[in-house]
Write a structure and sequence with these properties.
The protein is mainly alpha-helical. The chain is built from six helices and no strands. It has helices at residues 3-42, 46-83, 86-122, 126-139, 142-158, 163-187. The termini are far apart.
């Protein structure tokens, strides 16, 4: 292997690790947030845990829709980044954001109107329907934050900016823990 090829190979390996390491840490942090959620909800009992699990299945569907929209745009944005066409990246970002927010709005409206029916798709157990429906009505406001943050993070990955997604995950974990501990502490009084 020639010296220039060794240098190019080392640079390639460095680029791969500098992009993949923050993504891996971000994924671990996201899993930590889910673990914290499960621990906190688990304290409320089996019915609450089951109801939240049912709701998370529904929320996963929204997440998958937004991920599909953003990932499709990311592929084209990455090609445009390589070609140096930044104006098209901006247009694709705007389009992906519009579609993601539209999906969030549709899920918001469906959840607002049919939260109990959504839970009944998964379970007819009355002890799960009521808390699950209530939980969905509370988390529906987060649909828009999910759409915006996930679209931004995924499109930024296309242009090799992975640190913002990592910071987003870290802040999400910190706020999640803070508000759950805060809520638990003040419910004791």
């Amino acid at each position: 292997m020639t010296e220039s090829r060794k240098k190019t190979y080392k640079q390639f390996i460095y680029t791969v690790f500098s992009l993949s390491l923050p993504l891996a840490v971000q994924r671990v942090i996201n899993l930590t947030v889910s673990l914290i959620d499960n621990i906190m909800v688990g304290r409320l009992g089996e019915n609450a845990m089951s109801a939240v699990g049912i709701c998370n299945t529904y929320l996963w569907f929204l997440d998958a829709v937004i991920l599909g929209i953003s990932s499709g745009a990311m592929i084209i944005c990455a090609q445009d980044w390589g070609a140096g066409d930044q104006s098209r990246i901006k247009k694709l970002f705007s389009l992906a954001m519009t579609y993601s927010l539209t999906a969030a709005l549709i899920f918001y409206m469906v959840t607002s109107l049919f939260s109990e029916q959504i839970i009944r798709i998964y379970s007819n157990i009355p002890e799960l329907v009521s808390p699950g429906s209530s939980y969905l009505l509370h988390v529906r406001y987060g649909f828009f934050f999910l759409a915006v943050s996930q679209t931004i993070v995924i499109i930024l990955q296309a242009v090799r900016e992975v640190r913002i997604g990592l910071v987003n995950s870290i802040l999400s974990c910190i706020f999640n823990v803070f508000f759950k501990v805060y809520n638990t502490f003040f419910k004791c009084f």
